[in-house]
Amino acid sequence: MNNRLRFVLAILLAIPCFFVNGEDPYLFHEWKVTYGTLSPLGVPQKIILINGQFPGPRINGTSNNNIVVNVFNQLDEPLLFTWNGVQQRKNSWQEGTPGTNCPIPPGANITYRFQVKDQIGSYYYYPSTALHRAAGGFGGISVLSRALIPVPFDTPEDDFMVLVADWYTKSHTELKNLLDNGRALGRPQGVIINGKSGKGDGKDEPMYTLTPGKTYRFRFCNVGMKDSINVRFQGHTMKLVEIEGSHTVQNVYESLDVHLGQCMSVLITADQDPKDYFLVASTRFTKEPHVATATIRYANGKGPASPELPKAPEGWAWSLNQFRSFRWNLTASAARPNPQGSYHYGQINITRTIKLVTSAGNVDGKLRYAINGVSHVDPATPIKLAEYYGVGDKVFKYDLIKDDYEPASGKEAQDKITLAPNVVNATYRNFVEIIFENHGKSVQSWHLSGYSFFAVGIEPGRWTPEKRRNYNLLDAVSRNTIQVYPNSWAAVMTTLDNAGLWNLRSNSLERNYLGHQLYFSVLSPNRSIKDEYNMPDNELLCGLVKDMPRPTPYKSG
């Protein structure tokens, strides 16, 4: 039996177990993940390719589509993919992080099956194992609204995915060795746009071609490792229309800060003289910014792009003010026909407040990053499997961190850092407030899987309950990432209505790898497939559960 026939047979057998909504279409993908040699910054490097592509193939879908991706790992290392921003409703089995799944061994394959349930917007995928993201393996995900649900702008002439990233010329194995030996990664060597840096000398082939008078959608995602990136178009303004699955008030910007892990959509109208222009991406908050360009060409246009690039803004106060200008479009529908503003999050009583204070320090002479004094370590048995098999007490402890953590004070004070799996026991359907306090000198960015949250506030200083008076409780954007500026705090709110195990992580590759993450365990007391799907039949097993008998499935009622 060949691989393709085996793949289709496996899908047909598995579909009844996962998707009771049989009328929603299925989109099938088959990926061969390999190494190849490319030169994103002009230096030959080992790059992770998907079907020979870097970036990987774009996943295009529509709200409620079922996505099926059969991944063949042809690398020499174990591998996982995570789907950044896809909420995986009732299905954290498909999350693809080391805390939820065993990695795909070299030479093996696994099939991911998930539904983009009640979602629209711009997202991306990437390898979540080791430091593989530093070698590529990432790609875009775009989810359109269903035909009967109105979108608050006319259908654009075309829809482009723009993956911007800072980039290292060292291999992912060299970078991993640095971190494993207690050293920091240092500054990246450049910036890439869809895997290329652009020479900016007028000789680059156009990345995008526009028809004069037409309007285009550009979906930006910062898939990088360390830096915030500012994006802007030469001679054109951008109308912001969507952030991570939410339609926004359509303000117009000359440039936009896209922080690590964030995605947003803009509309660009080709209304300038017909010639070439540059799309510019440059690092923010760095002493010497790295810059990349991509050429935008007007069809039948004449003339090269001007060598004079539009300047980036300076300082993070500008960036904070831009964040405050982002607003939820209360009258627009998202994945469902009801307006976004019909959900009045500001009127819901907070059930639990969790304050997360980040820190850095040395443990046994090696650099580590901690949340409330705990630096996360992935156990050999994934946390989700340990819970499901009833052996969690042998793998991790719940609630090592406190909700109201206060760091040590004084110039010489340094918090003790504990290395352990960091798992917060959360209550299903609670409405929680999460506070991020950044006591450091660089911008941080955080992602919560399984949910979207309302980004209600960012301010300098320390958070206190009195700061709630400054929250935006009307039209904060519902999204899945939030940046936290130096010596500042950020507040988000969400309802934990998605049962499963969900990763809260730093979008910084170094910080994430060295402990800046935790997991929320959100278990339904009913143990019912109405709340959470059973473990898939094709789930890979490892660690303590490898040879254990399969647990009793969740009941249907």
UniProtKB/TrEMBL annotation:
Keywords from the named record: Glycoprotein, Signal
Q: Which SUPFAM superfamilies match?
A: Cupredoxins (SSF49503)
The residue ranges of the Plastocyanin-like domain are 33-146, 159-300, 408-526
> Listed GO molecular functions?
copper ion binding; oxidoreductase activity
Query: Has UniProt tagged this entry with the keyword Secreted?
Result: no
Q: Residue span of the signal peptide, if any? A: 1-22
Known Pfam families for this protein? Cu-oxidase, Cu-oxidase_2, Cu-oxidase_3
Q: Which family does it belong to?
A: Belongs to the multicopper oxidase family.
Q: What is the name of the protein in this document?
A: L-ascorbate oxidase homolog
Give the originating organism: Nicotiana sylvestris (Wood tobacco)
